[in-house]
TrEMBL record:
SMART domains: acidPPc (SM00014). This is Phosphatase PAP2 family protein. The chain crosses the membrane at residues 12-36, 72-93, 105-123, 143-160, 167-188, 194-212. Pfam families: PAP2 (PF01569). Keywords: Membrane, Transmembrane, Transmembrane helix. InterPro entries: PAP2/HPO (IPR000326), PAP2/HPO_sf (IPR036938). The keyword Mitochondrion does not apply. The keyword tRNA processing does not apply. Residues 102-209 form the Phosphatidic acid phosphatase type 2/haloperoxidase domain.
Amino acid sequence: MNRFTSRLLALAGLLTVEVLFGLVLFIVAFAVFFYLARVVFVHHSVALDNWASGIVDGWRLANPGLTGPVRVVTFFAALPFLLPASVIAPLLIRRAGHPRGAWEMLLAMAGSVLLNQLLKWYFNRPRPTNALLQTFGLSFPSGHAMLGITFYGCLAWLLARHFKRPVWVVPLLLWAGLIGLTRVYLHAHYATDVLAGFAGGAAWLVAFRAGLKLFWREEEAVMEEESASL
């Protein structure tokens, strides 16, 4: 079997239900991000942001004691938490016998941080002026939402795939969603920032996994060819 044929068979082997689901998720996430960017920067609409702010402001007025717990929840996607967690978690995953999973999480987070900063610089949207906590940097897309969905989404995937713990998938994704909601509650971001962060993080995670899978498949194919030639 020549190299071209083996590559075609390898690519055909990648067309699994998992890959098709990932492709659909990527297209939907990318479309949502593109739509939100048009809403904010082309149509200059604030209807969604005002509607979401009105709802969370109502929650805060009805339950003033909620702000303290919300500040605690939002910490779990802040850089002071995610930076060490993005190193410690891969080390634990590697120690558990999954070195590829460890590299996957480490590189996914590094790429997400870089991509989020590039998007912020490109769109250059100022943050809300009435934040309930000290905030820095630009607003669109939300770093907490984007990095949170990357970290907890990747962790959920690894737990389900390598550790046979699919029961953690929904709680981890809901936790990431709750963290995004805290950013709107605290007026640290607009609702469109958070939704764009979720969409951007999901699109990045799917694209990164697909690229990594292709790289590893190519690497394995090269190693097999080298072994066969010996």
